[in-house]
Fold each of these.
Amino acid sequence: MVMVNLILILLVGGVLALLSERVNENMPRRVALAVVLFDLIYSLIHLSGMPELTQLQAPLPDDPSTWLMHFKADWIPAFGISIEFALDGISMLMVLLTLVLGAVAVSASWTDVIVRRGFFEANLLWTLAGVLGVFMALDLFLFFLFWEVMLIPMYFMIAIWGHENRGYAAMKFFIFTQASGLLMLVSILALVAVNQSATGQWSFSYFDLLNTPMAEATAHWLMLGFFIAFVVKLPVFPFHTWLPDAHTQAPTAGSVILAGILLKTGAYGLIRFAVPLFPQAAMDFSYVAMVLGAVGVVYGAVLAFAQTDFKRLIAYSSVSHMGFVLLGVYAWNELALQGAVMQMVAHGFSTAALFMIAGGLQERLHTRDMREMGGLWQQMPRMGAVAMFFVVASLGLPGLGNFVAEFLVLLGLFQVDPWLTAVAALGLITGAAYSLILMQRAFQGEPNPRLADQGLMDFGRREMLTMAVMMLALVGLGIYPQPILDIAQPVLQSLLEVTP
Amino acid sequence: MNAQLMMALMPILMLSLTAVVLMIQASVKRDQSVAWVITALGLLLALWGAGYARGFTQPVTVLLMVDDWGLFFTTLILVAALVTLILSKHTFSSEGERKEEYYLLLVLSVLGAVVLIQSSHMVSLLLGMELMGVALYAMIAFPEKGQRPLEAAIKYLVLSACASVILLYGFALIYAATGELSYAGIGLKASIAYDQNPILLMAGTAMVLAGIGFKLSVVPFHMWTPDVYEGAPTPVTGFLATVSKGAVFVALTRFFVEGQLYEYQSLMTALAAVAIASMLIGNWLALRQENIKRLLAYSSIAHFGYLLVVLIALSYGGAEAGLIRESITFYLAAYILTTLAAFAVVASIAGEDERKNNIASFDGLFWRRPIQASSLTVAMLSFAGIPLTAGFIGKFYVISVGIQSQLWWLITALIIGSAIGIYYYLRIIFAMTMSAGSSADMSANDEGKDQKNIAQDASVSSQDVLAMLLLTIVLLLGTWPQPFIEFAGRL
């Protein structure tokens, strides 16, 4: 019930935020922040109360009782569809990441959103609810439902509060994810049909569908349906073209959620569904996936380097970083998977922070074009220092979370394919190049005379507090990553046992 | 004819009675609002009759088959007619014309639709279709002012007449081949006839399917659809899209199943080609439409393409017949309800003003009339097949059936079609989220407009109630479909 409540709190909170606009136009953001923090505390209370956390055991993929939490209730029994949620170490990490970044996103919208604030905060909370559903649902029908439905509030956030080209970006975002989602729907239904013809029972439960016997060719096609849906969301070259537009045009809070959380649903889907449901097919396919990942790492980095739009640069850097996740997942050994999980968390924080900085700049300068910036550190030293921190985090400076993640991925990948490792390692070098050029163009160098006498406001207390949270998280992940690894380890171990 | 049979015919009797009463009323005292009330009462009585007849399901002569399945669709169509009636009141009341005949035509057309749904014989099929169609021509042309309705009606009349002729010719050929006119009889004799002279039978059924395909407006018989949708008064367009098409599809299913047409491979290949073309071309042509009624016309072409997939699955085995029937029931119900929701909004926003049917006139609807905008949003999402709406469960059924029958080409077309479809459904939603003014003075400008519109719209809140009701039904079917699935399974 805890998991259902987590989602319900956000859904109801969204309605409250919407209504609270009638009281006072500043009310919605306060309500939204309160709701997200309440949800976070609620989840922490229930998680800390669980004895299993201190002595995590490997959850058996096909036995719900070994998971941290499990909830099941009938929904559409005619098709064996139930409301089934379950939580293990990885989904727990993702849920916590979602809620923390949710609070960050509310903070990012604090002064950014000036019209229809109630509806904005409501959409933000509903998106979070949808994402939580994706991370916890283990009934494939329910999972698909959350997967699709979380797009609608996100669509509204981009379409209503986005920047100059929002209509195009929102449409592209929706069509890409929706069309690939249809492929996944066909795969899900076909998987269920195969399972039904084998057992005579309709069931959409993950636990029933694991180990469905099927012909090799069938498995390959079905796996592909899931794979495409997830890598479009991740995104991976060549399915990434929606991302720069959506991330650039979304309002700051939207970008934070998109980059910080929504991309992770794709990675999560790969780890949870695409590989375990079709272990053999996924292993046969792994080389292709890894090549796509390595191409993504380099391609994203090169394109990032060429951008003049601050947000677009960060967006392309996400393509590069998510390439590491794909590499980590399909290398499919413990080190690489640990790295992938770590990357999901660390990238969530670093990119969210960078998008917030981009939002801060846009709010102050009314442009995202780096050619119009320059020397901003002098006027806004706090913002400059914060940006420096996250830029070096993003390029993989040792001691911060992203380094641990990428290092683990490369280490694990080396055992599988040294050549691809060499290609992917290029991403670290190019990463340094585009990250530093971002810093150089925006904050260093000759101050732009046009901005000299504008009296730009430095980061205020709210922004610094938000940034501090994410800095602490990244330093913590970088210096002492063991807790995260410990939480993920049993899950990964049991997943590794699923595959041949 | 004994009493039992009369009971089974209750909905038809009630509708006929209403038609007679309306005619008498028009000769005694012409009064529009009285006619409206009589029509409403008549439709409600027919609804009661449809429920009452459930106790007496049986074949009524060779012409009609009264069964639970038909009665369910009868109910649905009567509901659609009621919605049309409510919308018509708003649309037509503004003009100072005589409207009594319009209600009479509406009742006659519904009567035709009910006969069509229950037909089990080619004679009743033709009778129902013509009664429905002829009344519909007049309904389309009913607004005396303006050329467009007239143009649409003529277009529909001429092409419809051609289709009827082809249909009749098909009947003749089938009769020549089998010597039967009832569906069941054709089903019995067709295989022998096929062995003797396959061309005669195939040509006949192909012509019948072409005639029916015209009414369903599947590609390549779709040319008339956008013009007629655009030209007809909006409530009539809604009526055409739901009552007419729904009833024809039910009739097609009966003819198809009882005539055992799914046995013939060549016919199925042709039907598959029609389905694929409808899904792709329907969605493709909808992309560039600026008029929302034309857009919905093309969208409905695509939706009947999806529905044909289920019908084609019959011949390939794989899926259980029960599941296929359930799929048709669910999809058609979801389509009819969603279409009603969409047209209810279009009718109440645009009214009879032609210029207001452009997508641009829906700009910022969310901030002007949130209830109508929400209803249209849900309708669009349901058409696009997004979860939590009735349309998604419908699509879920179609894809399930397609997969179980391994119709991969059709599923591919369905996916491509749906992916294209998302674009134009989203365009409407996006238009509704836009702000009417420029972004700088957006808030101030809108505030003022909001105030004005709220005051202006207070008088038509009954339309909001209708929109809310349809929105709730569409969402309820999507979120909690179990009761309806069980119900559909029992039909």
Amino acid sequence: MTGTSTHPPLRVRGLRKAYGDVVAVDGLDLEIRAGECFGLLGPNGAGKTTTIEICEGLNTPDGGEVLVLGRQWGRDDRELRERLGISLQETLFSDKLTVAETVRLFRSFYRDGPTPDAVIGMVQLQEKTGSRVGQLSGGQRQRLALACALVGNPELLFLDEPTTGLDPQSRRQLWELIEGYKASGRAILLTTHYMEEAERLCDRVAIVDHGRVIALGTPRELIASLRAEHVLEFAAGDTSPIDERALASLEGVCSAGQRDGTYRLQVSELHRAVPALLGELRRREIQLTELRTHSATLEDVFVTLTGRHLRED
Amino acid sequence: MRTERRRWRSHSLVQLTLVRYREFIREPEAVFWVFVFPILLTAGLGIAFRNQAPERTAVAVVESGEGGVRLAEALRANPDLSVQSLGDSAAREALRTGRVALIAVAAGRGAVEYRFDSERPESRAARLLVDDAVQRGAGRRDPVGVRERQVSEPGSRYVDFVVPGLLGMNIMGSGIWGLGFAIVDARRKKLLKRLIATPMSRTQYLASFLLSRITMLVVEVALLLGFAVLVFGVPLRGSWGMLALICLLSALAFSALGLLLASRAQTVEGVSGLMNLIMLPMWIFSGVFFSASRFPDSLQPFIQALPLTAVIDALRASMLEGASAARLLPELGVIALWLVGSFVLAVRMFRWR
């Protein structure tokens, strides 16, 4: 198709959307490059779904500009529908139909694309071809949703929280399928509130909060922006609060914070920071009840930027 | 990637219509209510209201003395009376509980007394029968000779009246329920939203409902009418073409009404309430089980404007009287107005999300 090489798959400028008094999207900018998997990472209610549904042409913005494959919603809808693959956050396909019947139905809407059998093969549901949708597991249903998004051989794929609510094994299986699609070199916009998902699948990530992009980059760049490779968390027995500035000045520690009795230190040199912390606690005669360290993740980027966790659970 | 050749079966309208059949056939309850229930109802009503030999009227005689015996004999001579001889208090009890319609008492010197409640129709009939028997027993001769011939003509029985009513009610129910539930369920599941995210033609989506409705209508009508004609000998005096036209137009009109009711509702419960609210007056007023003309004149303009009234009147006139197209024009006009009005409104109001 013409246009794909000169236009980015998706460009969004100054997007705004409010529902009554609630501002869901507040001046959001995005640009997806050809062949990349782009992630919108943010907590529930950050405006991810509103944003992706506006890009899918299923919702109308109050303001801003959206260019999909160089086209605009409202002018080129029919053509765009042929060229996009969409998986909504929660679609319940008819329980009474089989997998094959469902895929065949969706395939019938598109001019071009692989055969229904080929698509069922792509999402590894061959053994479930004749099963009713009502008998599928959550993971199998999500793979069916992916199949229905792929039947038109899309140039741009939208996945809204493709693994929410799945068990870890089903989630990994879906990731493998999405990675397989990525290998074909076509662009994906996906939303998620799982940082592992964004780290594993996305070439670039926009961290979204309150309808705005608060950080943008590759997962590696975003984590590096913390200037601390590790995170050290500890909790102490019932004592008076420890001064955060004192903790931040310990050797190897970049910054320190406290929330709900758990202290959180960003650490550049773990081997220096741990002995320094233990020495400080012993000096103050404070009892440790919990101590953890992990390599910094996108979650830590989010916590550092907002003071909150992605998932409050 | 290989591109599939587009055979007719992979056409989206065919696929959408196939989905409609599959969802229907795989829902045993729906199959029962649409196909089996109307036949059971026809059978039940046909049997309950079948024309039968009139029952004998039960009366009591209080026998006291010579006069009582002669009175009982005179009454037993009438084959339409079932006569019991009872004591005075037992007879009163039987009259009070409705086991007898009248008590005849020999009042002495050849006179007879009738005790009955003139408010009860069967008591008034019993009064005539008993009096006739008493007078004949005393030697009355009728000055005019009469002959009787029993008549039971197909077309005038209750089953003939009720079959067009049930047919109309069935067309209404499956049209409104069939569309209403399926569309609201798809909206609730966000399936409508998912479908409009594809290049699917929205017109084809709605057309698939009408197409599947029409083919299922053929089965529905054939089953019910076939049963009524074969088992009860219900007449079909009008032309097949006219019958088909009425059924088709009604099915489309009720489907459009179903579409209208489903155009905004977000929950199945919501749309059920709405559908019952719309159908209830028609079940009552449109003359399914008894003639709509029994309602007061002041209600008639409202009743005649209901789509089901027009459908049932047209079906009855065609099936029982063989009415011509010209005579059915008012009814067909009402149905067509409902079809166009509901459809235009439904398309304007319809929410895909």
Amino acid sequence: MAQDRLTKPDRHSGISRRGLERLDLMLLTVEALDLNGGEAMLSMAGQLGFNDLFPNRVELWKRRCYNPLRLACRRGELSEPETDALISLLCALADRLYPMLRQLLSSAEPAQVTAERWGLFQKRLDELIRERLNPRRGGVQKLLDPKEGPALRLQLIHGLAFGAGRGGFDRLKASLMDASA
Amino acid sequence: MKVSHRFEQTSCRLRLDGLPDLSAGQAENVIGILSGWQLALAGHTELEGKREHLLALLDVVLPYARHLLSGVPRRFGADAGPVQIEPVRESGAGRCHRLRLFSSQPDTPPLELSLDDAELSDLVRCLDQLRLDPRVQLGFKLPAERPLPKREILERIPLRQRLFSPLAAATALAVTASISLMVPLPRRPTAPSPSPAAVPTVPLSPAEPNP
């Protein structure tokens, strides 16, 4: 389904800057969950047939830099094939990480173990945020805020869990195209 | 020739039983006519139903997950419908989701299932597998996923936060207007009073002509 869309002619994706911000943050969440996330992204892009769009790590990074919260932020918009490829990549990575996402969301796990998992995830995500995002932006400060951060992290994990797999593509894409409040 | 297909996730197992619709030219392993389905959720009673119940479940759970993804969970399912789902905030814990199933049998109380996020995402993945499986051709017409309008997105912002900006703007305007009203207006320079109307003086005696 996603592959069919990728053959459409080049045009704007209709995803707002806020949507691109969420998309990149979810990819960052994948990297926080998987220590080898960067390599996994590239390898998954190859498996999904996106070698033309993302032939190397730099090309993938350049597409992700449309996130306005990035330190090295790029202006402009991504085309529909580019955003569709990024969303397909995210859905496939989330599908691979689904057991981990499930553990974080499950209330059946012992509370202490769940708290330790969230703590570890938070530590890794915060490190990545400090390394790659602009700390002067309000959105970044909210992510690092001890009060507002947990709800935003849960929202990112929800995004991955409910957008995982082939069935999550349309759902995730529609949510990234939501009107900005 | 009965056909069964199973869709499984960690806490969820969905089984469909049916037959291929040979009149529509369906293959032997395709379910085109549903005879029944069973949904087993770990720790809960096994559910069974017919085609319309499965369609109702898809119609309610998938849009609910869509809204959850956008951060605006809300209740789905009509009051008279067979399936309802709504978010419930449990004290001390995170959010959970209450799935209510109404039996078509009279005098049967509704079955309530409380699902956590992990169980709900398992159910959503099972339903995704079902709707995308080419071996299941039940002709369900599910609405396409659409971006949420601004009206629905605004609901996730607390009312107090939403009203703060316009109220602050209105207050600032009122304060500025009151202060500006207290500033005395500069007096207009008084216009010079008009001189009494000039009355043409009539000479008492005709002027003597100059020689």
Amino acid sequence: MTDELGALTTIFTEFYYWITVVLMFLIHVGFCMYEVGASRYKHHQHTLMKNTILIPLVTVTWFLFGWWIYWAFPTGPGLAPSIMNGSDALITDDSAFSAVYYKATSQLMAINLGDHISGVFWAAFLLFSWTAASIVSGAVIERITTFAFGILAIAIGSVFWTIDAAWGWHFDGWMLKLLGYHDAYASGVIHAIAGGFALGILVVLGPRIGKFTSSGEPRNIGPRNPWLVVIGLFLIYTGFWGFYAACNIPIFNLGPEYGMEGVTYFTATNIYVTPTTLSGITFNFLMSLSGGLLAGYVISKGDPFWTYSSGLAGIICASAGNDLYHPIQSMIIGMIGVVIAYKLHYWVERKFKIDDAVGAVAVHGYAGFVGLVICGFVLNGYPSSGYSVGAMWDGATYASINPLGMFIGAIIMFFVLGMIPGFIIAKILHGMGKLRIPREAEIAGLDYEIMEAAKDDEKSVASATR
Amino acid sequence: MATVTNWIDHLSASEVQGAVYPGVGSEGILVILGFIIWIGWHVITAKQESEKLQKLARQRRGPNDWKSNVTDG
């Protein structure tokens, strides 16, 4: 870098994403605390380890192939031609933003003096991957094996969510072009898919022992440490700020990008390279959080676990369009999402005997799904991209945002890339006898031996001090 | 192995080489190593976990037996 202004912009962008990664780390800290707080005492340490171990597993696989998938699959393949090379095959040629640069063997996937962005951008997406896997982790506590969870975490964190990101979050994605899909802060591409994936697993995994009576009535297994749950959710809120910032490009000159002769317009953009402001999304983040908290407090009659979770669900529901909504719209959308998610959680629990231990399917899956559908109506007619606005199903141009396209997008996220793969992989693991821990181990508690050893240590120390 | 042996020479070259890690050109081998470590981890830990769970299951503990193991803190 020899031009000072260019260097400043590049290094600012590099530092910007780096900071978002640090902030998003708090999401995972929060999820760990939240899950441990929700689990019973005799499963605490196993619960913690299960969620922790997804960090290295998803990271390593994200390096080996996950990041490549994001750059290779925007065209489907075979569904809509790339605006970069005109082909609807995998984007593996030498065009700009090709997946060829993000193979694990690429020299850009390392310290490279010619590239200041790949690593921090890779990491920002990686933290989204952890989040996707961590959402699933909470739903399945106290009865899944760590082996099975590891495989499932890699599947959602390094394969399925990155396919949906390529399809619906990449500026060249076929879902933008054909459907007019818009999901600025990931109602669908992270939350709906992860919630759907968790639901698919839960169908196969079954409930915790004792969750349902012999007549099928659900029993409440509430959080054992509400304080840990509360702090965990506050940390997730905090990390979510980093998530929102990471979904933006901090500074971009849209004039030349859109091919406008002589126009210079520097702005922050969302992931689709359409203009927004960090200031504007700050309004919406806080108003949708508030809408969620207000609605959650009412619908749960002041239950702390659901009220805190509803704050998160409020943000998740409004996230699809939080780059463009008015703050009051964000708040109302957050409230609607919470009411639907809460009601659906208990209906599905009773009707299908689904034991979602932390309400992850509701908070992330249902709220995310509803958020996409609402976005289709509220942002109906907005362009899904700044490059070239066209009609639905055209393929060569970008369709405008519309209710039908967003509904189809929600189905793709929740069911096609979420619930169905989760169900199939869980079925395979179940068939191998590797999905669920033995009944006797679940009754005894997964931490039994660790606790027994700690007690023996305590006795030993006590006897030495007499 | 060293890709850079003198920063002044390196940065004043007509075309600065971007990659500076040791062993530039050996990325393929490193990635294969990464795959082996990743898969190997699953194989080892699956065996460990299976043995641990079977041992615990054989003990047939009751749902409240863990309470006798609560430490004083």
